[in-house]
């Protein structure tokens, strides 16, 4: 009882601390610790928790490929004119001269230089044949996006463009978003913005006209794919309610996969031409130039690692919880006492580690109990080694609805779409409240995704 009383005081102190700091509630958590030593009735033991690496600038770890390969300017040297002034032709591109070359790596170098550095394509000298460029960013690793993808153009934003993603290392591609000055004409799609999306249409692929003006204004150079606006549909405008977002990511596979990639592809279909028709007498005005690409994210480690290393040109998770593999996607040898399972964000704030256990499980290893590792959704803990789940639920702690793996997913009663709201039982509510109360560590950290 004294142990529980101390934990309760710790939880109260944490709440007071958070109120004083005016930061995001600590209950949302960083998920940055995979295990910690705690005292229990059985003495000093390991407390395993769900964990993930911190978000980082993922452009430091990618490989960029251009198609066609010879689309970069400078071979042979070429002189370019300004889009807004066909008589201002003083920009030269020469691949053999460092000061005049514009290779692809300049899309990812340090910003703030004067003059600005950028990659540049050849001009539209083969007009009316389309000037098509594919820019592929590959990580050879599964990545979870955590912030907006931002592409900064130096030549005027393209009038037609598609952002695509791959989840299988570039073997297949799916569109993320279409961009055009006229969506109906370019892609036979009605124009929309990210602000038009709802919780039930978040996964829809839209075409936006918001980022496709042809003029070269100072503040009109960026093209975005809005990750945070989509997060805000669950976490609120300032992303204060991260618990809601984590809960949705945990229980809705399609939503989790939407923000997961191995590769990105930028398909440039038509360069900026300004407000007038293409001037065939001055085709050196039309080209693509990109000064910066921002991709913020983290290695996907299935909540089994809090760090990711870049070694020999390859990213890999430093796996905990007796897991192994690039994404911690399987149990280590001799730790296959039960089937591998990804970690879980639930219950808030520390989640469920779902550790791999030894083949010959001993009596000390606990899967569930009647305190911190309670079976959810009405499940019953059997001998501390498994949860006996109701028919509608599955998972280590009965945290996953069965319908998630069925054809069509979990459907609402009326809408024809997959619902993004997980079943929420009174027992899960009790577990969440208990998890917030029985914090083993007082913390005043602000929450980040």
Itemize the secondary structure elements and their pairings.
Elements: H1 2-21, E1 35-40, E2 43-48, E3 56-57, E4 63-67, E5 78-80, E6 91-93, E7 119-120, E8 133-145, E9 149-153, E10 160-166, E11 174-180, H2 183-187, E12 207-208, E13 222-225, H3 227-235, H4 242-251, H5 253-258, E14 260-270, E15 289-294, E16 296-299, E17 308-311, E18 314-317, E19 323-324, E20 330-331, E21 380-382, E22 386-388, E23 393-394, E24 400-401, H6 426-437
Parallel strand pairs: 11-12
Antiparallel strand pairs: 1-2, 3-16, 4-8, 5-6, 7-15, 8-14, 8-16, 9-13, 9-15, 10-11, 10-14, 17-18, 19-20, 21-22, 23-24
Helix pairs in contact: 3-4
Could you explain the architecture of this structure?
This protein has 449 residues and is an alpha+beta fold. The radius of gyration is 26 Å and the shape is elongated. It has six helices and 24 strands. Strand 10 and strand 11 (174-180) form a beta hairpin. The strands form eight sheets. Strands 3, 4, 8, 10, 11, 12, 14 and 16 form an eight-stranded mixed sheet that branches. A four-stranded antiparallel sheet has the order 7-15-9-13, with no helix packed on it. A two-stranded antiparallel sheet has the order 1-2. Helix 3 (227-235) packs across helix 4 (242-251). Helix content is 14%, strand content 24%.
What is the compact description of this entry?
This protein has 449 residues and is α+β, with helices and mostly antiparallel strands.
């Amino acid at each position: 009882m004294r142990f529980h009383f101390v934990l309760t005081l710790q939880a109260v102190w944490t709440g007071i601390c958070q109120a004083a700091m005016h930061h995001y509630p600590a209950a949302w958590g960083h998920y940055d610790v995979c295990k910690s030593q705690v005292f229990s009735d059985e003495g000093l033991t390991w407390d395993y928790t769900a964990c993930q690496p911190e978000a980082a600038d993922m452009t430091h770890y990618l490989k960029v490929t251009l198609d066609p390969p010879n689309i970069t300017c400078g071979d042979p040297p070429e002189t370019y004119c300004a889009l807004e002034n066909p008589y201002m032709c003083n920009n030269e591109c020469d691949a053999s001269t460092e000061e005049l070359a514009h290779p692809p790596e300049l899309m990812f170098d340090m910003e703030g230089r004067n003059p600005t550095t950028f990659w540049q394509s050849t001009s539209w000298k083969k007009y009316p044949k389309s000037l098509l460029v594919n820019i592929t960013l590959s990580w050879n690793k599964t990545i979870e996006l955590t912030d907006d993808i931002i592409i900064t153009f130096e030549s005027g934003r393209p009038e037609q463009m598609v952002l695509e993603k791959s989840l299988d290392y570039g073997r297949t591609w799916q569109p993320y978003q279409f961009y055009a000055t006229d969506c109906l004409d370019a892609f036979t799609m009605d124009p929309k913005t990210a602000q038009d999306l709802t919780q039930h249409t978040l996964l829809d692929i839209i075409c936006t006209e918001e980022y496709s003006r042809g003029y070269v204004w100072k503040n009109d150079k960026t093209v975005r794919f809005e990750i945070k606006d989509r997060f805000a549909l669950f976490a609120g405008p300032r992303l204060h309610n991260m618990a809601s977002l984590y809960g949705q990511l945990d229980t809705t596979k399609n939503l989790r996969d939407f923000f997961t990639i191995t590769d990105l592809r930028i398909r440039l279909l038509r360069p900026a031409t300004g407000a007038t028709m293409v001037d065939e007498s001055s085709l050196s005005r039309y080209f693509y130039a990109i000064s910066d690409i921002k991709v913020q994210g983290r290695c996907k480690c299935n909540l089994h690692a809090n760090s990711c290393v870049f070694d020999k040109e390859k990213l890999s998770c430093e796996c905990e919880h007796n897991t192994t593999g690039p994404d911690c996607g399987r149990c280590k040898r001799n730790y296959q006492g039960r089937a591998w399972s990804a970690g879980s964000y639930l219950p808030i704030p520390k989640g469920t580690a779902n550790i791999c256990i030894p083949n010959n499980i001993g009596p000390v290893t606990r899967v569930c109990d009647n305190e911190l590792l309670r079976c959810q959704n009405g499940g019953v803990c059997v001998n501390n080694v498994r949860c006996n789940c109701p028919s509608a639920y599955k998972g280590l702690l009965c945290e996953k609805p069965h319908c998630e793996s069925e054809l069509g997913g979990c459907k609402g009663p009326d809408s024809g779409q997959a619902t993004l709201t997980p079943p929420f039982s009174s027992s899960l509510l009790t577990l969440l409240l208990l998890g917030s109360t029985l914090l083993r560590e007082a913390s005043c950290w602000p929450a980040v995704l």
